[in-house]
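Re-run with default settings, no changes from the original entry. Doing this only to confirm the output is reproducible before filing.
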Amino acid sequence: LMERYFSRWASETGLGVQTLVELGHTPGEPPDSPFNMAVMGMRLSWFRNGVSRSHGETSRAMFGRLWPGLPTAEVPIGHVTNGVHPGTWLAPEMSELFVERLGHDTATGGTDWSGAGLITDHELRDACDTARATLVEVARQRLRSGALDAGRSPSELAWTDQALDPSTTTICFARRMATHKRAALLLEQPDRLRELLLDGSRPVQFVFAGKAHTDDDEGKEMVRRLVAFASEPALRHRFVFLADYDMALARAMVQGADVWLNTPMHPLEASGTSGMKAALNGALNLSVLDGWWAEAFDAGSGPNGVPNGWAIAAPAAGTQPGSRDQARLDSNTLFELIENQVLPLAAEERRHRDSTGGDDRSSPWWNRVRHSLATLGPVVDAHRMSAAYDSDMYRPAAALSRALAAQDNSGARALSEFLGHIRADWDSLRVAAVDVDERDGDLGSRRRVVASVEPGRMRPGEIEVQLLVGHIGAGGELEEPTVTPMSPHGSPEPDRDGIVRYEGDAVLSVPGRMGLTVRAVPRHELLSTPLEPGLVAWAD
């Protein structure tokens, strides 16, 4: 297949079809293995990233075999967490509040969100009440039109005029109905959900929406289960599934939700953005600690001790994604959070509204919303994302491209020759010995480290010798080591024994057991990182 469709392109680039095929294989794979587009993309890119911190970690573990000499943590795949465009998703009422209180139009990328703390309970309540009422009206219209399209008579649809309540705490879930999104997690305990919905002492309602891919049978089954549950006459005024999910409906839901629900299988959520859109509109996130929420949830670590949402903890290491046991555990955690934290806080807000009128900033619910806006606003803004891509990837890549193309592509030819040389001769390099000043030292003190390096066929200036210092983990590995270049001790040319000595200082920067090691990596001004070729010589 590759020969059929890519032989001409391979010939024009001078690669040859076999070399092209190898670009899509990981080291050690048989020649007839399927061609992997992601692997080819990794091999041909200067910069690579996941779309959240956890996605970057997962990607480094998945593709680490392309850089077999590196610890997983140093595989050259970074991350830029996704963001959303505030101007597209903000309710008009919230946008006006932000202009007044933040002093800038969030649609243009303001970075200072501290003014969110100045918004009063009354202002937030009015904005969110308006958006929730709009969502209820949209939902009723869609329920009615969907039923009419399905052949129901108007006389059967009087109930749609009473579906949902514009003054009731509203929990929303809307996204692609893929299996790993677990839209039906609440239905793991249907009787418990029915009891919750029918308990008048703690009013709550749910709005679900989404579409499954036409070839995703499991996703379509999730939709079927949700629709069946939402069709029960006793529940349909408090639990609705809205068909024909589109951008207009998505906008109404992220603007009108009080709580945004996200329940993916960990670690299969790359980022997720629907909760970001909802957060900008004053909704509180209730989500599995995966994707963007794993780095954005603060667990109440801020100065006021109020968390910026709620979290379902990630499963223990080694847990199989999608296991029934994990689904039951996460379902139970979800119900406990709703029953014991979300709804009591909502009930307190109703009492607070009745007793104060809401002209101050004392409601626990709105305190949490203010904290959510202040902490998440600058994080979820797509302007932050775009700036990170620009500074961390696009500009460095453009500079490298110009350097490679300069003087009739002389830089590209020089880099190609260098890579060919080091790949052929790297095994001749050896970090033969490391000598460390063993005297006891206090925290913050330094120890001299001298490494004896046999460069073999590598020339001076073609390698960088690095000192790694860090805390020793349970498995004996260095955890998050600091990496410092070492300098030649004397001449960079080998002595009569073929050795060049490098020296550096190990700083005892953290308490506890510390360790160090030395390694050599390639050095060339046109490498995006010394780790790019995946060639490392570790100390014996």
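The first strand starts at residue 49 and ends at 50. The chain has a mean pLDDT of 93.
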